[in-house]
Amino acid sequence: MTRRLAVVAKKVGVSEATVSRVLNGKPGVSEATRQAVLSALDVLGYERPTQLRGERARLVGLVLPELQNPIFPAFAEVIGGALAQLGLTPVLCTQTRGGVSEADYVTLLLQQQVSGVVFAGGLYAQADAPHDHYRQLAERNIPVVLVNAAIEDLGFPAVSCDDAVAVEQAWRHLASLGHERIGLVLGPGDHVPSARKLAAARAVAGRVPEEHVARAMFSIEGGHAAATRLIERGVTGFICASDPLALGVVRAARRKGLDVPGQISVVGYDDSALMNCTEPPLTTVRQPIEAMGKAVVELLNAQISGSTVAPEELLFEPELVVRGSTGQAPRG
């Protein structure tokens, strides 16, 4: 018991006496500290005292599709920090190919009696993907917030970066540099943010030829393969649905002996970590991660506290960050 008090106290950053008061239901402890101690018990694998077991754990599932794309760890850091300030403990659930699926994670989180779940870049962003596990959460009235894109019939609040504004900024930037053959490197056909980006490009350009649109998996390799096709079709300006895709375009151009930005210009999306350290530094459209992450936690906490939250999508304004991967279109 003494060791348990010491471990929990160290985890929370309070005295052993404070932990003891919480475990024994004694007064003199703030609600935030009390919830932090209970969350620490759950995370460390200690059983709660009998009189406290009926309460839902102060755990929040944070479900991410991967960690290789730096944008997801960035969101996790902001959201996790904001949750901790509220006495909520994030449980990171990262999908791996052939490993635990998003639906499996939902089952595990429900078994842990989580207070809520945040999804970033999940199957909800794919219109043709299975969504039954989301409906399972809705049926149990588990608070949920989605990051970037929302399937309307799911009925969850969402926090998104405005894809239409992002593409408009990128397109106008490339056009101002004289690029006339602008191409798009997007995600799969049922990927909602990619569909929004394509619709925005058509709105700002009037028409985008199908041969100037390439679909790819969200990776450097996917961007490389897609760009190879588009370069052969004469595209000189690239707008990409993620920074890794953009880095793949840069690699494809170099493999063909083309200079970036002398002959090929590339715009990414996210402004994820280290994009100012690439060669050349990547021009990209920045998602306001800090503001979006805090909004996610505010929406989630409101639901946990019993407030009704409208199933709407909050759109945040992106920012074009011009660096060295874009330049004047080649002549002739």
TrEMBL record:
Gene3D superfamilies per record: 3.40.50.2300, lambda repressor-like DNA-binding domains
Boundaries of every HTH lacI-type domain copy: 8-57
Keyword Electron transport listed: no
Alphabetized UniProt keyword annotations: DNA-binding, Transcription, Transcription regulation
GO molecular function: DNA binding
UniProt cross-references to InterPro entries, sorted A to Z: HTH_LacI (IPR000843), LacI/GalR-like_sensor (IPR046335), Lambda_DNA-bd_dom_sf (IPR010982), Peripla_BP_I (IPR028082)
PANTHER family: LACI-RELATED TRANSCRIPTIONAL REPRESSOR, LACTOSE OPERON REPRESSOR
Protein name per Swiss-Prot or TrEMBL: LacI family DNA-binding transcriptional regulator
Organism placement in taxonomy: Bacteria, Bacillati, Actinomycetota, Actinomycetes, Kitasatosporales
